[in-house]
Structure to design on (359 residues):
């Protein structure tokens, strides 16, 4: 056995993995090699020092300090979670209710015109229907060229914001289940 | 068993049950943090952070695994991260010499000196080697268990043990030479 094999043998002994037939060879080497013998003695000293070293205890009151910190952390999470919820709700309302609010200012005027022209409504029904179809075509063209891209952008933006919101909610209110 | 019940209750958000777990494991976690970081303040902070993370990720805990191992794994990773972020440390010889109380025959001082002496040797190891040594000698974990805790292979653990033991033996050799 050479010195390198002896060192591996020492580590196997320390790991309690040494095979019984390898130990006499190691002992024989240690008897004859002064360098390995002194290394083995030092390794055994290290072993003794570490095995007898006590566990170090924390200062009293650590449990209450941990729980107080945890409580503060939870409070902060609740606030941030609430904020995330409010942002999500606000975005949702903005994207769904606002377009309807946009037509409200024009509604009284439209009603007034409808009442004034009510008398001649019958006469103009046929020409009105034609105008209606005309406006429909114009509206559809406007919708396809101008409003649709805006709407798509709005939907993408909304989905992005909802995804951010969901990730925040999941982060601060994780689903508690054992895995 | 109480521990499993406390874990289940803590998973449902029960802070009181989690408090029982903190009380049960504060010393092993603190000891690991102290052995890894070498400062009582840092160890206290790391212990608090470990429990905070444990509570936060309790839903990921696998009950088939011992809770103690899971907690130690969080603490060990946290401490290794802290040490990697720290600037390279100077050897603590000078620092210890400055902070040591003057030699006295009392047991308290002898115990302090022994604790600091071991700590001084540990602090000269790399964070990964220190983690392996601490888990092996203070917690009696096998190489397989240490590999599981640190998320590495058994052969890597053995190699770190080999390196750390030799380094510690060399430190003893130097110390003997200084004393002569």
């Amino acid at each position: 056995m050479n010195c390198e094999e002896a060192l591996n043998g020492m580590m196997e002994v320390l790991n309690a993995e040494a095979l019984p037939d390898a130990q006499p060879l190691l002992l024989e080497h240690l008897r004859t090699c002064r360098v390995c013998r002194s290394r083995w003695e030092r390794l055994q000293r290290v072993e003794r020092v570490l095995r007898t070293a006590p566990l170090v205890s924390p200062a009293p009151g650590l449990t209450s300090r941990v729980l107080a910190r945890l409580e503060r952390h939870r409070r902060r999470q609740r606030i941030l979670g609430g904020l995330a919820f409010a942002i999500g709700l606000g975005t949702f309302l903005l994207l769904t209710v606002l377009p309807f609010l946009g037509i409200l200012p024009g509604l009284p005027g439209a009603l007034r015109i409808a009442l004034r022209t009510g008398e001649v409504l019958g006469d103009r029904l046929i020409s009105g229907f034609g105008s209606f179809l005309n406006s429909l075509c114009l509206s559809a063209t406007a919708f396809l060229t101008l409003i649709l891209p805006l709407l798509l952008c709005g939907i993408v933006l909304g989905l992005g914001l909802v995804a951010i919101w969901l990730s925040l909610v999941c982060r601060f209110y994780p689903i508690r289940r054992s895995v | 068993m109480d521990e499993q019940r406390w874990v289940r209750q803590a998973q449902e958000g029960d802070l009181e049950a989690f408090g029982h777990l903190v009380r049960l494991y504060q010393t092993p976690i603190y000891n690991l943090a102290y052995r890894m970081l070498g400062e009582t303040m840092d160890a206290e902070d790391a212990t608090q952070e470990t429990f905070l993370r444990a509570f936060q990720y309790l839903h990921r805990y696998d009950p088939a695994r011992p809770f103690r191992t899971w907690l130690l794994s969080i603490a060990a990773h946290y401490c290794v991260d802290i040490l990697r972020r720290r600037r390279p440390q100077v050897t603590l010889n000078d620092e210890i010499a400055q902070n040591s109380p003057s030699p006295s025959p009392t047991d308290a001082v002898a115990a302090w000196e022994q604790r600091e002496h071991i700590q001084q040797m540990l602090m000269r190891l790399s964070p990964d080697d220190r983690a392996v040594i601490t888990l092996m000698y203070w917690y009696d974990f096998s190489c397989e268990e240490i590999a599981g805790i640190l998320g590495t292979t058994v052969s890597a653990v053995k190699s770190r043990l080999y390196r750390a033991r030799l380094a510690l033996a060399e430190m003893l050799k130097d110390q003997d030479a200084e004393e002569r």
Q: What stands out?
A: Chain A has a mean pLDDT of 81. Chain A touches chain B at residues 7, 11, 14-15, 38-39, 42-43, 45-46, 49-51, 53-59, 62-63, 65-67, 69-71, 73, 174-179 (CB under 8 Å).
